[in-house]
Design a protein that fits this description.
The complex is a heterodimer of chains A (323) and B (382). With 323 residues, chain A is of the alpha/beta class. Chain A has helices spanning 2-14, 58-66, 87-91, 109-119, 124-137, 153-164, 183-198, 210-215, 233-238, 252-259, 286-291, 309-322; strands at 18-29, 32-43, 47-51, 73-78, 81-83, 94-97, 171-175, 202-207, 218-223, 226-231, 242-248, 265-271, 274-280, 301-305. Chain A has 2 domains: 18-235, Rossmann fold (3-Layer(aba) Sandwich), CATH 3.40.50; 241-306, Lrp/AsnC effector binding domain/regulation of amino acid metabolism (RAM) domain (Alpha-Beta Plaits), CATH 3.30.70. The longest helix of chain A has 16 residues, at 183-198. Classes of the chains: A alpha/beta (323), B alpha/beta (382). Chain A: Keywords: ATP-binding, Nucleotide-binding.
């Protein structure tokens, strides 16, 4: 019975376009359900994002998909390996960059990379060429003799990425890789990721930055361990269950207080001199609805604008809160 | 297999690099055996000398003073105080001013003359009178070693006192002391110190090994790699085998040069015995490391193992003197077996193979411990 299943699975995966497929993946920590019935398919050679606030189950989901945690229930198949049974087989094929810097701070950059390359069984010659190649791609050649602990956040992050891809994994997991990095470094980091993706690597990245999420090919919005939405950023914005109205006025704080009370309004957030109001899509004329409100006077300018990813995020997770 | 060796090598190199950067620990490798050997070899002495004692001299004769000098000449005691009454003397013992008091009675000369050991035999007297001792010791008996030393004075010969050959009895037994004829404690202590110092440093190094990786967050990275638990465990203990060997050389070398501890056994035998013990201790540390949640806990557990290793292993007190249940506990400790082995090798030139029970026990302990720690160390975060 088991043999039969395994055979089928392998056949399915040879031609499978998916790097990851999970059905009803659930993980409970005593009372808390960190990941709840997560269905997931990640196409090969894409960058897939987990977007969610802290505590939304991003890290737990990644740990489940890397075989570091055993699921309470559900099916996971990563690169043709059935988890958790084939977790050991999977380890050679994946790279994992942890949220916290987890290389040795009391070793130099080069020593860290040498350590990891030995762990992955690279021969002495392979080590040499691979390490010098990685040092130059990740701009660490000058720091190669520096202790990892004494480097800046951006340098540490580049080192961590270099270490995670030293064995050329087919699938790369990045858990909030840019949380300790300035915007300039973040841009360069994403350039590296697109290069890797171009070379055939599938990348799964978790983040709570909207701009970062927008770069992903496909995105899952997580909240309280539940997947709220799942599509490409563009589709998510197009199919958003709300319309965005921008209100320009002088007394924005008061307007916000009054609009937020309306049942059709999902949220209202101030952006400088404007108020961004999310109105339920079922409302056919949102501008008329808002203009009827007594707190808005005639000088207020109202306009329907293109939704951003943040609006998607707020409308998805906001729904969860009101329900 | 080849990749497995490469992974072990990776861990070994990493441990050595970290150790080289950790100056404090590196210094401890040398300083712990050095300081402890000098300290203990000089300090621990079971032949007690110069115990401070007092005297209550009721007789105040030249004889009583000669008696005091004769006793002091043994070197065991040192008369530091003189008291007028027994009450005063007892108070002095209570307050730890002196450990014992010699009470010389008024009639000390009559007692001495009639004492059988002096052998005048004359003038004839009642049996009760002849059997009276010359003087009395009041001893603080709480420390058995000190009490024993003073008890050994009970039948000291008084030949010099009267300038007359005493009628000493022929001994019941002839005793020949092998291996340590001069009865120097240091001969027994230095090989034992090897066991104590190795227990301390080896367990301490590895007990923190796994916990430290967890505390610093490196474990999360390690478990995503193909590194196996057994590979990690072997890689972790390997560098410390050399460190243990360095420490043994320091202790035995200094013992030989400074304290004249004989070195009778072969070098290969010593190396074998030490290697077995170092492995057993390192593995014990690893087991601790897989149980402890942080470095403080691992340190507490190390001390929990260290104390019985000092007190029950035969290092301080003879194994034979312990009650049976305690002997079982002592048998479980690697230090007990190693102390037997190293004393055998260093002092008596016994081959390790001749003490096969102790040898096999250390081997079994190492294998079992390695297995337990590899099984306990899980490659998941659950």
């Amino acid at each position: 019975m088991n043999d039969l299943n395994d055979g089928q699975e392998k056949n399915l995966n040879v031609g499978s376009p998916f790097a990851i497929s999970a059905q009803k993946l659930t993980r409970k920590f005593s009372e808390l359900t960190a990941v709840s019935a997560l269905d997931l398919t990640v196409d090969k050679q894409t960058i897939y994002g987990f977007l969610g606030p802290n505590g939304s189950g991003k890290t737990t989901a990644i740990r489940l998909l890397t075989g570091l945690l055993i699921p309470t229930s559900g099916q996971v198949n990563v690169l043709g390996c059935h988890l958790p049974q084939e977790a050991n087989k999977l380890r050679m094929k994946i790279g994992y960059m942890t949220q916290k810097f987890s290389l040795y701070e009391d070793l130099t950059v080069k020593e860290n990379l040498q350590f990891i390359s030995r762990i992955y069984g690279l021969t002495a010659n392979q080590q040499k060429s691979r390490i010098s190649e990685l040092l130059s791609t990740h701009q660490l050649t000058q720091q190669s003799r520096q202790l990892a602990g004494s480097m800046s956040g951006g340098q540490k992050q580049r080192l961590a990425l270099a270490a995670a891809v030293i064995h050329k994994p087919k699938l790369l997991f990045l858990d909030e890789p840019t949380s300790a990095v300035d915007p300039q470094n973040r841009r360069e980091f994403w350039e590296q990721l697109f290069d890797l993706c171009d070379q055939g690597t599938t990348i799964l990245v978790s983040t709570h930055y909207m701009d970062e999420a927008e770069r992903c090919h496909k995105l899952a919005i997580l909240e309280n361990g539940i997947k709220r939405a799942d599509d490409s950023p563009q589709n998510l914005m197009n199919n958003m269950p709300a319309q965005v109205v921008e209100v320009g006025a002088s007394n924005i704080r008061q307007i916000k207080e009054c609009l937020i009370k309306l049942p059709q309004v999902i949220s209202a957030a101030q952006l400088g001199t404007h108020l961004r109001v999310l109105v339920n899509k079922e409302e056919s004329n949102p501008i008329a609805l808002l203009q009827r409100q007594p707190c808005l006077n005639d000088t207020a300018k109202l306009a329907i604008v293109r939704p951003s990813l943040e609006d998607v995020f707020v409308s998805c997770t906001g729904q969860g809160m009101t329900q | 297999m080849k990749t497995s060796l490469l992974r072990i090598q990776a861990i070994v190199i990493k441990e050595l690099l970290q150790l080289r950067r950790d100056r404090m620990t590196f210094g401890m490798v040398i300083m712990i055996p050095l300081v402890q050997l000098l300290l203990f070899a000089f300090a621990i002495n079971t032949n007690v000398r110069d115990i401070p004692v007092g005297v209550v001299d009721h007789s105040q004769t030249s004889l009583s003073r000669v008696l005091q000098q004769t006793v002091a000449a043994t070197g065991i005691v040192n008369f530091t105080r003189s008291y007028h009454s027994i009450k005063e003397a007892q108070a002095a013992i209570d307050s730890s001013e002196v450990r014992a008091v010699l009470i010389i009675p008024q009639d000390v000369s009559q007692r001495l003359v009639r004492h059988p050991s002096v052998g005048f035999g004359l003038p004839p007297s009642s049996k009760q009178e002849t059997s009276r001792p010359i003087a009395q010791w009041l001893v603080d008996g709480s420390d058995t070693v000190i009490a024993g030393s003073i008890k050994s004075l009970r039948s000291m010969p008084l030949t010099e006192l009267l300038d007359k050959p005493a009628n000493r009895n022929t001994a019941t037994f002839e005793v020949t002391l092998l291996y340590n004829p001069e009865q120097r404690s240091v001969v027994n202590i230095v090989p034992g110190l090897v066991a104590v110092i190795l227990t301390m440093t080896m367990i301490m190094f590895t007990s923190a090994a796994i916990v430290r990786e967890q505390e610093r967050g490196n474990m999360e990275m390690l478990i995503t790699t193909p590194l196996g638990s057994l590979e990690l465990m072997i890689g972790k203990i390997f560098p410390y085998i050399f460190i243990g060997a360095i420490q043994v050389c320091i202790i035995l070398g200094l013992g030989y040069w400074l304290f004249d501890v004989p070195f009778n056994g072969g070098f290969a035998q010593l190396a074998l015995a030490t290697l077995l013990f170092i492995c057993a201790s390192l593995v014990l540390g690893l087991v601790i490391s897989t149980i402890a949640k942080n470095q403080l806990q691992s340190m507490q557990m190390t001390i929990f193992i260290l104390l019985p290793s000092i007190l029950l292993s035969g290092f301080m007190f003879p194994y034979e003197g312990m009650p049976l249940p305690t002997q079982y506990i002592a048998e479980a400790l690697p230090a007990t077996h190693f102390i037997r082995l190293i004393r055998g090798v260093v002092l008596r030139d016994v081959a390790v193979i001749e003490m096969s029970f102790d040898m096999l026990w250390l081997i079994a302990f190492t294998c079992f411990g390695l297995l337990v720690s590899a099984l306990r160390f899980k490659k998941t975060l659950d």
